[in-house]
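call fold(seq) -> tokens
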Amino acid sequence: MAAPCARICRRLVGKGGPAGAGRLHRRGGGDHWNYSTSSFLCHSAASKQTDSAEEIIIPRKKTWDKLAILQALAATVNRDHTAAHYRFQDDPYLIPRTSPEFRLYALSHVSGCNAAKYIVNTYPHLFQKDIAEPSIPCLLPEQLEPLINEVNVDALKERIQLRKVRASVDLYDQLLQAGTPVPLETTNTLLDLLCVYGDKEPPREDQLEPKEVEDEVGIMVEATGDLQKRQRGRPRKASDLLSVTWRENNNAERIFNLMPERNEHSFCTMIRGMIKYGAYTKARNMYTDLLNNRMKADVHTFNALISAVPELKEMYNEKVDLILELLKQMAEQKVQPNLLTFNSALKSLRKCGSMAKGLSLQIMNEMKYLNIEPSLATFDHLLAIFYKPAAASRQHTDIIFEVLDEIEGKHFEPRDPDDVNFFISAMRLCLDLKDLELAYRLHKILETGNNWMLLGDSYQQSIYYGRFFSILCLMESIDVILKWYKALIPSLYYPNVQGIKDLLQALDTENQLHLIPAIWKDIKQLGHSNKQDLVEEVLELMGRDKHSPELQVAFAECALDIKAAYKQEQFRNIQWTATSLGSVTLLFLRGGRTRDAWAMLQLFKTNNRVPSKELLDEFLDHAKEICNKALALDLVKLASSFSLPATSELFDWVMKEFELTDEEKRSLEELDASSSDSSDSDRE
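ret:
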């Protein structure tokens, strides 16, 4: 026993540990070890020299995270590309199969959460018995009503804690009228409440408006392929969500002016509140008052002021000068900048034109000097400064290669709200540059560690994967495209109409049109079978050229499915066009469905459409091929009923290719004469 323990002790020597670590004593020449919480001493019995004691420092005990085991197990499992997203696993019956179903599921999920919160918070007495083990405080009913009814400072603190804006202001006024002094700290807390919510009652989570719920979910309206709906369905910016503006002489300003004494907290709270709700000039004046009172702002106030620079100045050089001035004042006031300081500066520099490029690199060097690790938002702002999609010159696009070199292999955690914009912007740049290798590198970074969590909500994920899939369809071979198609759809991405069109173009380029019937089944499942432009493109690709008889039969089956789908309820918003009617007719002809093709010709007249001469010529060729004279005669009669100028040519062709009886010839001559008269009258 002694020998192994001695070896362990020797291995632990030099590893270091916390001060006051224990030591191990070995008594005499025996094999008994005495454990002491104060020290560990190891004496060699063989040497019998107490002065040669060997001090061993035990390393600090490893503290495991509560989720460490689950994270380790999760790291051993890869994502199942054939399965739906994990968020839908609770109820397999309701797993969405189409984009509209996903939208409905997401709305229902948020609505159900809000309904549950409403019940719990409205009737908390029904949930007083806590039998959960372990107890989860965030799932317990919240205290929504104040318990202190007296007019005192404690009641004011309680209402502030409950975020009762109006009740807090009223109680504060009552305290002032009663002559009760309110501590500065409590007043500052009230100012914090007013400035955070813009002097308005905060909306309860279980009482969101439908529009707010839709934007909160990040509805994937983009999947419809309609540009106008994409604009309505995009997540709103912070400025769009803030319908509240900074009112003149509101309660925050009134209470601030009534305060007998103010400290830096008071001024900084007002400045940040004014900037948050669009009172930028007032915020700048308030900052001047803070300096005049020989106070200094904190780092969060400087961050807010720097972010407001584009609204305070108009000219590019004025914006740059103001940013530099604020950063200089931070140094003079010895305020240590943080990550959000530099991110705010870079974000403001995005609106400073080409002047921002040099200063942005200086900011990156300053971050490196201060050992501040950039976040993904930092690199997103940097890309936006150096790359302007609308600019005629794209001379600074090499910056993205340097950015990817910097972040490749790194694990990122969310540290800035704008971190979720990086992957979307970077993939857009890859698509604009048409650089497939760059897109692969970016996607590998996304899949490193938990970086995928910084992709944003469902809407942003749809944008990212849509751009990634577009560049794959544009630059990659069809085998690789189909591999990614199976991996991304629909477990991670519900493609929109443009994504399906990109796939169809890739199939056309690689001459793999035999896959169109399978793609059409996916189009139906994804809910895009009622998009007229997409359906017509599918029909056009199938009917453009002639293929093998087996493939033509498959195309005819697909066309029959499309025809049947047109009769369904959801197809009322689209109509048969001459192009779609002609394509379906051709597909029926080439697939041997003569009866169905003739029925499609009748639909031309029903829908006030005119068949093309090429379609009629191929129909006649088909009639000759199957030796169906009656079909050829009926086709000439149909062309005459449309008063087509090509009726005479069709008449001559039928007379030449088929042996007609005298009665059939007279009938055709009469049709030809009437058709000629009709054409002459039309010309007159």
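DSSP finds 33 helices and four strands in the chain.
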